[in-house]
Design goal:
Blueprint: E1 9-12, H1 22-37, E2 41-46, H2 56-69, E3 78-79, H3 84-96, E4 100-103, H4 107-121, H5 144-152, E5 158-161, H6 163-170, E6 174-180, E7 183-188, E8 198-201, H7 208-218, E9 223-227, H8 234-244, E10 250-254, H9 274-279, H10 284-290
Parallel strand pairs: 1-2, 2-3, 9-10
Antiparallel strand pairs: 4-5, 5-8, 6-7
Helix pairs in contact: 6-8, 7-8
Length: 314
């Protein structure tokens, strides 16, 4: 059920595993502007479930960048690494209800199976919206004794959502998307495209999909504003929200800032850090101009066209 009659609450939820770039600045500015214009609240959440790559130094630099940009909410900030018990409770509820199961095929196993399938059938193996091959489900119906023995023997595994059963339980789900050409629209979710997504791994006791829906519910988030690249994952989130009895926020998936080669800015391709622009003498107003935002951000999502971030791509 979509949240209604609630004071608007927006959030910016970066991972402190690298330096912020212009794409992060754009998303943070949009969220802060929309919250202000709606008379709502803007929160910062630190998605640091990867405790190996996320560090206190990177978190401090992230907070400093947001303060300089003028969009740092007051503390405290929710750190996912401090709330693994919340995600464990959600996972246990799904597993106890027969909706999550230990899956023993590794990423390498899955890729090898997909390649064999393509060789044998001559047809492309199904892949999720991110391009990863769907889980083959070969171990979905292992007997309980066999499964417990595998776990006791130390066989690596991940907890996966039984998507077919989840869809059977919840039926058709949808979400409200704003900011498109038609303003507000109801979008029918397509969770089957994702297959049996990972909910937790042995070394990381949650996943992005699971933690984000739990966090949004616990923080009372009413509006999720994030990049267009995350729009497909909303289908998974809506299924998890329905299964766990959590409210559905209103969604807005904004444009992405691209580099000179048309690639989305990211830490993995070493897009120029926001701090580099600061050190070069640029101001927060310069950053707004570079990402195509004026003094404020209209709620209908219309904005001036951003400069292609040539200078931010190195």
């Amino acid at each position: 059920m979509v949240q209604s009659n609630a004071a608007p609450i927006f959030r910016f939820a970066p991972s402190p595993n690298g330096a912020l770039h212009l794409g992060h600045a754009y998303s943070a500015l949009i969220n802060a502007d929309m919250a202000a214009q709606a008379g709502g609240t803007f929160l910062l959440r630190l998605e640091d479930i990867d405790t190996a790559r996320c560090t206190q130094a990177l978190e401090a630099a992230l907070v400093d960048d947001l303060a300089w940009l003028g969009v740092l909410p007051p503390p405290p900030y929710r750190r996912q690494s401090e709330h693994f018990a919340d995600y464990a409770a959600a996972l246990t509820a799904l597993a106890d209800d027969g909706l999550a199961y230990p899956a023993f095929m590794t990423r390498g196993d899955i890729r090898a199976f997909a390649a064999r399938s393509e060789d044998e059938t001559g047809s492309p193996y199904p892949r999720d919206p991110d391009g990863a091959p769907l889980y083959p489900r070969l171990d979905r119906h292992m007997g309980e004794d066999e499964r417990m023995k595998a776990i006791a023997d130390g066989l690596p595994y991940a907890w996966r959502l039984d998507m077919a059963e989840a869809i059977r339980r919840v039926g058709i789900v949808s979400f409200v998307e704003t900011g498109g050409e038609d303003g507000e629209a109801e979008i029918v979710a397509e969770p089957a495209l994702w297959g049996d997504v990972v909910l937790a791994r042995k070394d990381v006791p949650t996943s992005y999909h699971l933690s984000v829906v739990v966090d949004d519910a616990l923080q009372g988030i009413t509006h999720v504003v994030r990049g267009r690249d995350l729009a497909p994952s909303t289908s998974v989130h809506r299924v998890l929200q329905a299964l766990l009895g959590l409210p559905a926020p209103i969604y807005h998936h904004h444009d992405l800032i691209l580099d000179a080669d048309g690639r989305k800015l990211s830490k993995s391709i070493r897009s120029v850090a926001l701090s580099t622009f600061r050190q070069a003498g640029m101001t927060p107003a310069d950053i707004r101009r570079m990402v195509g935002l004026g003094p404020g951000f209209p709620l209908d999502g219309q904005r001036s066209k951003p400069e292609r971030a040539t200078r931010s791509s190195g």
